[in-house]
Automatic annotation (TrEMBL), chains A, B:
UniProt-recorded name of the protein: Thiamine-monophosphate kinase
Keywords tagged on the record: ATP-binding, Kinase, Magnesium, Metal-binding, Nucleotide-binding, Thiamine biosynthesis, Transferase
Family: Belongs to the thiamine-monophosphate kinase family.
Stretches that traverse the bilayer: none
């Protein structure tokens, strides 16, 4: 506790002003709180679960310098974490409704001032409106290290409709929504290493688009979201299902912006392993292909077949159209 | 992403070994996972809420060097955070059932090795058995700063039975469970600043005792847990109820270990403001005093009247038996 600051004012009968920490929460977070959050003034939030639904819950953390850049626009920082969590809800086929946030804030770093947190909160308010969720609670603390955010997300799903990773079957098609590699290329663009004339790639890095609103429980055998790199995450989906997977690199969907940059195997490898995609990976049996395509088309979400689940060879087999192996030096990100 | 380590092994067809991060989770956390956690292999946990109950949810974070000491026994570090969260459940009158954990782990700090996390997990396993909760999910990441832990706790409460902070009424007695100041003195003991021959104080600092198992919904008008300092937290309870409070310092219960150290006003002030108590503050009308005492006695939990809620003077009035003001230079901890 020695590094906790004393309150500025000394008093034996405390005044009407709040301690700074509580004033901070009131200024920046109370406006995000839903009714269940009890104005963030209690020890916990209280709510009545939706009757007849299962509840889905997940937590993710982000660290400055690892998951976001120190000079990222503050209105995108909280949103990136919220959207990463919303992507987990999308992967399970759940409808999100609430979230909690803890902040470990660098006390000695003057960048994180009131204006920064106002913009941070503005971004979250915009996303709350966009995605129909509200803040339930959280905690703020100080740290001598970088900013660390941790977010817990809650959602509902009809009983038995949650999509798992372990349901893929041999012969299922391997599908992915949207495009792959934009987030990883966006990071390079923000570092000045590749061109991004339209800003599309940087926006994909700052603001992933969680694929909420699909109802794939009668269509997909298994699902997960791509966050740590396509190849690694295909590996997770296959392994949890007791299978291997063939990944056809030439089928992996790239955006126009990515295509203009990716001119060699090295660039393509970055897309396949770079992470920050937040698209959905799906295992879909052949006889539900039409159902998948029409379901996604109705919701204006692109979906592409990028391979197949195989029973005879564990691992991810990353191949060209001609069947030759595509050279990769890693599969994705690991923090350890 | 530049500071994320590449995987040690290069491969184009991934081997049967897991990436290190996933192997880490499997080694240390899968054994804590309940059935709803889906073995921690999915994007989220899925569970059926208890029918006819409200759900209670809270989150707290702890940072090395702020909430725990770098050389604290690793088996106590996770437990301290879990118990702090369980104390929030106790304050709401809820019965906890599950929790999620995110870890931002200092990658360059060799103390945080496999043995450290094995002990960390051992401690959590012991507390899971003690408190009847199980791990639902979480996330691990790396940081260049200190260890940051964030924990979300879930519990159930009968509809309308959650204890709020805003229900205290003028004339209600102000009560507290257990003893105050042991955690703050325990920190001093661990720093070698005060004697702690039995180790009682250090244990209170390392392992708070959440006051679960009380059912005070028909007895107390309001409740909260004492975590940031008794005076400050009494202030929260009073303010949220639109009242002031008189705190009788000479009535504040101290343990025998604390009494042997606290010999002057300065020592008593530390107990009143030091935090890390995790006892319950209660607002109880006079005509329920007997019910409170017998309810707590049956559960072998000490409870002491330490003041009263007042309607005519906002703030916390910290006074001696003779009515004189007790000198305080702060009310409690604030992180900002």
């Amino acid at each position: 506790m020695t590094d906790r600051p004393d309150l500025a004012s000394a008093t034996d009968s405390f005044p009407q002003t709040l301690p700074d920490e509580f004033s901070f929460i009131r200024r920046h977070f109370r406006r995000l709180a839903g009714k269940d959050a009890l104005d963030l003034t209690d020890d916990a939030a209280v709510f009545t679960p939706s009757p007849g639904k299962e509840m889905v819950i997940a937590a993710d953390a982000m660290v400055e310098g690892v998951h976001f850049l120190p000079d990222d626009p503050p209105d995108t920082v909280g949103r990136k974490l919220l959207r990463a969590n919303l992507s987990d809800m999308a992967a399970m086929g759940a409808r999100p409704f609430g979230w909690l946030l803890t902040l470990a804030c660098p006390k000695a770093d003057s960048r994180y001032d009131d204006a920064w947190f106002e913009a941070f909160s503005d971004g979250l308010a915009a996303d709350q409106a966009l995605f129909g969720v509200s803040l339930l609670g959280g905690d703020t603390t100080s740290t001598r290290g970088p900013l660390v955010l941790s977010l817990t997300i809650l959602g509902n799903v009809a009983p038995g409709h949650a999509l798992r990773r372990n349901g893929a079957q041999e012969g299922d098609g391997l599908w992915v929504t949207g495009t792959i590699g934009d987030g990883a290329l966006g990071l390079l663009a923000l570092q000045g290493k590749v061109a991004d004339p339209t800003g599309w790639l940087a926006e994909r890095y700052h603001l992933p688009r969680p694929r909420l609103g699909l109802d794939l429980s009668g269509i997909a055998h298994a699902a997960m979201d791509v966050s740590d790199g396509l190849v690694q995450d295909v590996g997770h989906l296959a392994r949890e299902s007791g299978l291997g997977a063939r990944l056809d690199v030439d089928s992996v969907p790239l955006s126009d912006a990515a295509r203009s940059i990716v001119t060699d195997d090295e660039g393509l490898a970055l897309c396949l392993t770079g992470g920050d995609d937040y698209e959905l990976l799906l295992a879909v049996p052949e006889d539900r292909t039409t159902a998948l395509l029409s379901h996604c088309q109705e919701r204006n979400i692109a979906v592409t077949r990028i391979g197949e689940f195989v029973g005879d060879a564990p691992g991810v087999h990353v191949v060209r159209h001609d069947g030759s192996r595509f050279p990769l030096h890693r599969q994705g990100w690991s923090h350890f």
